[in-house]
């Protein structure tokens, strides 16, 4: 069933677990996330990145997720991930998304604050939740996200930003990367602790793929209530498809679709179990 972003994440922060936010690009990935939520009895966030608009239109994503989430008893949120355009955010709200992320992380602080507050006014009037981002993640391997210079989130800025914008969740930059790590992750849990001490709202960890379990568990203990996973879903599905195609037998495109659903379920299931274990 469709659920409220703000309530889902506020409960997670209060009860010290995280909800997985899994990126989808089409029917198979959406089905993989929702079926895993049903099978494991866990809430899930189906995240559609604005960068995947060439794959699917917003109302098509909303139609599929609304239909499929009505078939399961677990809470499902449909979230617009990493969107820099106010106009696209308004279209997502009209299409039936339950939450949106306004990504003003590349803007100067005051501009990010003002634009985020504008998004919050419009979204909250429609009963839609908002995530914003302060600081910026670096780009790792196998990611199709934009190249970015890593900037850690300032706790003092985060405190003012949250109080003035009234966002429902804040994505922080503490050393995780979008994509797989090229070396050893340098996650600064100390910065997270300082942010969590002054920001009572649910905090969001982007760049979940490949982050060591111990770091994930520490982050959940220290205020992270939503964790985003994208690259690992794509990599695992491609590995299975490559092995299948390389095995030499005859195949059919419909079989590749079913393999994709199974691959999504493997990765989503692994992370859902971990996020609940903190
Ligand atoms: P990964 O691709 O590193 O899992 O990051 C996903 C993400 O943060 C999407 O917003």
From TrEMBL:
InterPro entries: Aldolase_TIM, Class_II_FBP_aldolase, FBA_II. It holds the Pfam family F_bP_aldolase. One of its GO terms (molecular function) is zinc ion binding. One of its GO terms (biological process) is reductive pentose-phosphate cycle. The active site is at residue 81. The keyword NADP does not apply. The keyword Metal-binding applies. Zn(2+) 2 binds at residues 103, 133. Keywords: Calvin cycle, Metal-binding, Zinc. Dihydroxyacetone phosphate binds at residues 179, 207-209, 228-231. Binds 2 Zn(2+) ions per subunit. One is catalytic and the other provides a structural contribution. Zn(2+) 1 binds at residues 82, 178, 206. Pathway: Carbohydrate biosynthesis; Calvin cycle. Signal peptide: none annotated. Its cofactor is Zn(2+). This is Class II fructose-bisphosphate aldolase. The lineage of its organism: Bacteria, Pseudomonadati, Pseudomonadota, Alphaproteobacteria, Hyphomicrobiales.
């Amino acid at each position: 069933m469709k659920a409220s972003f703000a309530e889902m994440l506020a409960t997670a922060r209060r009860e010290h677990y995280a909800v997985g936010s899994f990126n989808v690009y089409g029917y198979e990935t959406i089905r993989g996330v929702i079926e895993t939520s049903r099978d494991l009895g866990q809430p899930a966030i189906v995240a559609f990145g604005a960068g995947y608009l060439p794959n699917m239109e917003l109302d098509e994503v909303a139609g599929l997720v609304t239909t499929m989430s009505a078939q399961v008893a677990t809470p499902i949120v449909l979230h617009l991930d990493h969107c820099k355009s106010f106009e696209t955010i308004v279209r997502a709200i009209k299409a039936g998304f339950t939450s949106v992320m306004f990504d003003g992380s590349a803007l100067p602080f005051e501009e990010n604050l003002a634009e985020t507050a504008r998004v919050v006014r419009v979204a909250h009037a429609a009963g839609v939740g908002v995530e914003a981002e302060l600081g910026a993640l670096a780009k790792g391997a196998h990611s199709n996200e934009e190249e970015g210079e890593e900037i850690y989130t300032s706790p003092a800025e985060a405190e003012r930003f949250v109080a003035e914008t009234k966002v429902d969740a804040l994505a922080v930059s503490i050393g995780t990367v979008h994509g797989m790590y090229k070396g050893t992750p340098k996650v600064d849990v100390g910065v997270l602790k300082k942010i969590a001490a002054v920001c009572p709202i649910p905090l969001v960890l982007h760049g979940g793929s490949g982050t060591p379990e111990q770091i994930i568990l520490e982050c959940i203990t220290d205020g992270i209530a939503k964790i985003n996973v994208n690259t690992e879903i794509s990599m695992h599905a491609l590995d299975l498809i490559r092995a299948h195609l390389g095995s030499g037998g005859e195949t059919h495109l419909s079989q590749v679709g079913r393999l994709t659903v199974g691959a999504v379920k493997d990765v989503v299931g692994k992370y859902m179990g971990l996020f609940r274990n903190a």
